[in-house]
Amino acid sequence: MELAHQLCHPNGPYAKKHVAEALGLARGSLYIQRKQAQKDKNVANAIEAWHEKDDTMGHRKLGKLLHMGKNRVKRVMKKYGIAARRKRRKYVYPGKAKSTVPNLLRHPEKIPEQFVQQVGRTSDQAALPGLEEVLFSDIFEIKLADQSKVRGCFALWKRTRHIFALAFETHMRAELVVNTINLINDAIPQAIFHSDQGSQFGAEVTQAALLEKGFLRSMSRAGTPTDNGYAERFVGQFKLSVAERRRYENLGVFLQASEDWINFYNEVRPHEGLNDLSPDQYAQAHGLPKAGKIRLTTAPNRISVQANAALAANSVPY
């Protein structure tokens, strides 16, 4: 078929009728294939347009965004050599906190009775995994083009996968975690705050900030990143989608790229754990709070981000 198209290209020496007869093809098939090729090209262009926003998305997420079958997207990506960018993330153990607590997600029976009563659960309900609200948190590090380091900390709501709070600092002291906790909106009261055993999460100032918010501490087992899988996965995705995509000559450029992608993540990017809905779309469908538009604000040696929770009645424009 490709040979037939080459022989009867526009303004060529051969008529479609003669080429079809010589090759034993139906004349109409030459038009059909050419139309299909143009359709595939249009799909490829659409895929590349979405990859301008996030080139780590594969055929499943792209199929959802393009409103077409994932297999068709996969075929077109293979045809045009388009591939989602992938990289295996290395785990770096951050050091153990002086003050640790049990992993309440693995052992919900250890949730204090007082906390159970505050959130309106019965003891039997508290013993069932997944009934309590959970915020996952972690710390990560980014290098700019001049080799300067920026550290980030975030809070991810398990139920909708929203990023409700994110803070950046030039250091890794406990204040980084405290800033993140203070940015968490009151739309998620009495939540379990789960992290690894990093020293910043066990510091006294961190404990005080969590107590002030009414959050209950929970920690992964030492050296077991799989206990904090939600946070680990987000860190890997953020680094791949933003930090490792290009070189950032200065902090301002990095923050703008981060702001664009975080809002894309909360509002548009399909999530497999949410039936291929974005966090905002899932929240609206289930009558849950959703994150507002994230804006980055700068201060001396500190950059903070906050997603203000809005009522689920707000419309999602996607």
Describe the structure.
The chain has 318 residues and is α+β, with helices and mostly antiparallel strands. It folds into 2 domains: 2-79, no CATH class; 108-310, Nucleotidyltransferase, domain 5 (2-Layer Sandwich). It has helices at residues 2-7, 16-23, 27-53, 59-66, 70-79, 113-118, 123-126, 174-183, 199-202, 204-213, 229-243, 251-267, 279-285; strands at residues 134-143, 149-157, 163-169, 192-195, 216-219, 290-291, 295-299, 302-306, 309-310. The strands form 2 sheets. It has a 7-stranded mixed sheet with strand order 5-4-1-2-3-8-7, sandwiched between helices. A two-stranded antiparallel sheet has the order 6-9. The longest helix has 27 residues, at 27-53. Mean pLDDT is 80; it is low at 122-131 and 297-318.
In CATH terms, the superfamily of the largest domain is: Ribonuclease H-like superfamily/Ribonuclease H
Number of strands: 9
CATH class of the largest domain: Alpha Beta
Contiguous low-pLDDT stretches (5 residues minimum) are 122-131, 297-318
Bin the strand percentage.
15-25%
Task: Classify the secondary structure makeup into a structural class.
Answer: alpha+beta
Q: Could you report the average pLDDT, rounded to the nearest whole number? A: 80
CATH topology of the largest domain: Nucleotidyltransferase, domain 5
Report the radius of gyration as a whole number of Å.
25 Å
The total of helices stands at: 13
Number of structurally distinct domains: 2
User: What is the overall silhouette?
Assistant: elongated
Sequence of strands across the biggest β-sheet: 5-4-1-2-3-8-7
Helix content: 40-55%
Query: What's the main sheet like?
Result: 7 strands, mixed
